[in-house]
């Protein structure tokens, strides 16, 4: 794991940390190079936390302990491959400077997500969708706020694979429809922080109905994934102004594209024929695509 990926993973984990862990996370993000020379006791004292808290924090990041974490953190500093200075959007930045910085956040998050996405879970998620469609099971979608943009994108991608999905904008209709789920139907939830109680309510209903559950969420959001059969974690670093969830939308959209192409490859011949058919139909109707 590269340095930037470690820092991105910490940034992604921050909303789910305790106050003492957040102090530690902020210190590492601000002084990553200094941390590589600090002992367990020195870093704990600098952050006014206990040593067990430091050990738990590094294990939560996926390392065996602080020594393992520090070895990975220092690896790229030795070869001077990265710049450890956090990139921040300033109020007086030009449009092109903002673009460059947003691109940096996104690229770091994309690279870090390669480590937070489990290869087997990603493959199994595509298989769940594929099998549910083949067996004519319901595929029910949920998400709140900005996540509805992702749901509509997912619906369009699945429609192009001739896979029908269910989503209601109105939360009451969504709750009612979710109550109609049957065993081995599929429930897919898009959420970044998992802060909306409605998603928990819907997941509880899907779990009670014995539906299979896939959650696509931010790394560290273990609470909402407790009842999921599969959790796909993205590792997200947002810009410091945080006016909207820009990077999270891009990262989860990438996951949608991966699922789409993985499923498409299973029936590639029939799907390409379908594409030819609808393009011919559009042409006959005089529509440009």
UniProtKB/TrEMBL annotation:
PANTHER family given in the database record: GLUCOKINASE, HTH-TYPE TRANSCRIPTIONAL REGULATOR HEXR-RELATED
Entry's Gene Ontology molecular function annotations: carbohydrate derivative binding; DNA binding; DNA-binding transcription factor activity
Record's keyword annotation contains Transcription regulation: yes
Gene3D superfamilies: Glucose-6-phosphate isomerase like protein, domain 1 (3.40.50.10490), Winged helix-like DNA-binding domain superfamily/Winged helix DNA-binding domain (1.10.10.10)
Residues covered by the SIS domain: 129-269
Protein name, as recorded: MurR/RpiR family transcriptional regulator
Originating species: Amedibacillus dolichus
GO BP field: carbohydrate derivative metabolic process
Source organism superkingdom: Bacteria
Lineage: Bacteria, Bacillati, Bacillota, Erysipelotrichia, Erysipelotrichales
Domain HTH rpiR-type stretches: 4-80
Keywords for this protein: DNA-binding, Transcription, Transcription regulation
């Amino acid at each position: 794991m590269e340095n930037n990926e470690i820092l991105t993973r910490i940034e992604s984990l921050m909303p789910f940390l305790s106050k003492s862990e957040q102090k530690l996370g902020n210190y590492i993000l601000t002084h990553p190079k200094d941390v590589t020379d600090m002992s367990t006791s020195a870093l704990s004292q600098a952050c006014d936390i206990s040593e067990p808290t430091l050990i738990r924090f590094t294990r939560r990041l996926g390392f065996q302990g602080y020594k393992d974490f520090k070895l990975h953190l220092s690896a790229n500093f030795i070869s001077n491959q990265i710049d450890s200075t956090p990139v921040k959007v300033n109020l007086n930045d030009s449009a092109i400077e903002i673009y460059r910085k947003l691109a940096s956040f996104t690229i770091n998050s994309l690279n870090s997500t390669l480590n937070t996405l489990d290869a087997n879970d990603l493959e199994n998620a595509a298989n769940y969708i594929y099998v549910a469609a083949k067996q004519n099971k319901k595929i029910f979608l949920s998400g709140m706020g900005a996540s509805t943009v992702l749901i509509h994108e997912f619906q369009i991608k699945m429609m192009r694979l001739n896979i029908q999905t269910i989503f209601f904008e109105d939360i009451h209709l969504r709750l009612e429809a979710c109550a109609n789920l049957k065993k081995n139907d599929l429930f897919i939830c898009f959420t970044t922080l998992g802060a909306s109680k409605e998603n928990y309510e819907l997941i509880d209903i899907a779990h009670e109905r014995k539906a299979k559950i896939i959650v696509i969420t931010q790394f560290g959001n273990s609470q909402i994934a407790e009842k999921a059969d599969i959790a796909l974690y993205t590792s997200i670093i947002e810009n410091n102004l945080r006016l909207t969830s820009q990077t999270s939308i891009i990262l989860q959209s990438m996951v949608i594209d991966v699922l789409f192409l993985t499923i498409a490859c299973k029936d590639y011949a029939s799907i390409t024929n379908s594409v030819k058919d609808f393009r011919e139909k559009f042409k006959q109707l005089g529509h440009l695509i």
